[in-house]
């Protein structure tokens, strides 16, 4: 038996990565969603740009740290509010994970291709991972937009502001009515920038580490190899993606005028500059801890599920 079946020349049907990628994301998402919500709330704390609207950055930060933020949400909004926005998050991951896996495997197998010795160079993996993230996230941007805005609804209520949405479908309908199709893609530029970095960390690291372990160590292509590779990919993805995630969340959540233009930031670059100047460089890593704690088990569950579905379907490993 070959030690690395993934290097076999068996072709994968284009629809399979989409189906298995979407299914692989579903078991992981609800379990880790409270960490995602906590991460988003932390990213909004101390937002210096709010001073331009007469707000106070200090007033926008009622909590400090991951644990106190999560406890504050439970105490002031209720335990179930830790899952506010989970429905669009599931929608997002079905579209996003399916889209990125189809794109990455197509690039790896068809566009770039492996060398004659079945080796896949790191630079190809990096480019493939970034392009896969861009495609997947662009398709999923409307669901991500709704998710971020719904995650902030509880905070708006505490601040005495009116709630924007009655539910997921009302959010989609209202954004579409107010901003048209373009309104559903608000913040897409920083969103795909984040996705490119996260996928460069996730897909590239998993693919590279797994190949290395199977080809250069006694480990075989099994659950141990999948677990070690996924743990590495979760850490690298969090390190690379957190700054862009902070910028993306702030741009998506900022108030807008009647034309749909942001009142706080003109672009992702403007948001980056304001954050660093007003809050310091480390503000770009607000929410890193819950992001990493969420990404690690999510990556583990996703990759183990994805590989298992491929095995049960008779398709060669990733």
Report on this structure.
With 318 residues, the chain is mainly alpha-helical. Among the domains are: 84-186, no CATH class; 187-286, no CATH class. 68% of the residues lie in helices and 0% in strands. The chain has eleven helices and no strands. The chain has helices at residues 15-25, 29-44, 66-77, 86-112, 122-151, 153-158, 168-183, 188-216, 223-253, 268-279, 288-312. Solcar repeats lie at residues 12-110, 120-212, 221-312. It catalyses: chloride(in) = chloride(out); H(+)(in) = H(+)(out). It is found in: Mitochondrion inner membrane. This is Mitochondrial uncoupling protein 4. It holds the Pfam family Mito_carr.
Keywords:
single chain, 318 residues, mainly alpha, 11 helices, globular
What's this, in brief?
With 318 residues, the chain is an all-alpha fold. Helices cover 68% and strands 0% of the residues. Among the domains are: 84-186, no CATH class; 187-286, no CATH class.
């Amino acid at each position: 038996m070959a030690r690395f079946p993934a290097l076999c020349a068996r072709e994968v049907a284009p629809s399979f990565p989409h189906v298995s990628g979407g299914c692989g994301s579903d078991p992981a998402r609800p379990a880790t969603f409270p960490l995602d919500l906590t991460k988003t709330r932390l990213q909004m704390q101390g937002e210096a740009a709010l001073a331009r609207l007469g707000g106070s950055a200090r007033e926008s930060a009622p909590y400090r740290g991951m644990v106190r933020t999560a406890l504050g949400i439970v105490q002031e909004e209720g335990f179930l509010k830790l899952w506010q926005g989970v429905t669009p998050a599931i929608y997002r991951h079905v579209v996003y994970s399916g889209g990125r896996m189809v794109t990455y495997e197509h690039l790896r197998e068809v566009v770039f291709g492996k060398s004659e010795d079945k080796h896949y160079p790191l630079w190809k993996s990096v480019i493939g991972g970034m392009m896969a993230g861009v495609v997947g996230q662009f398709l999923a941007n409307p669901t991500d937009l709704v998710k971020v805005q719904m995650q902030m609804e509880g905070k708006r209520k505490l601040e005495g502001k009116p709630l924007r949405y009655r539910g997921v479908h009302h959010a989609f309908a209202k954004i579409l009515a107010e901003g048209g199709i373009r309104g559903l893609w608000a913040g897409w530029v920083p969103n795909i920038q984040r996705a490119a970095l996260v996928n460069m960390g996730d897909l590239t690291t998993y693919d590279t580490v797994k190949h290395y372990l199977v080809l250069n160590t006694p480990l075989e292509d099994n659950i141990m190899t999948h677990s070690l590779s996924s743990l590495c990919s979760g850490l690298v993805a969090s390190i690379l993606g957190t700054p862009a995630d902070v910028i993306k969340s702030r741009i998506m959540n900022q108030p807008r005028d009647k034309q749909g233009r942001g009142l706080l930031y003109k672009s992702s670059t403007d948001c980056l500059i304001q954050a660093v100047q007003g809050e310091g460089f480390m503000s770009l890593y607000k929410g890193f801890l819950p992001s990493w704690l969420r990404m690690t088990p999510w990556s583990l569950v996703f990759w183990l599920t994805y590989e298992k579905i491929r095995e049960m379907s008779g398709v060669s490993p990733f």
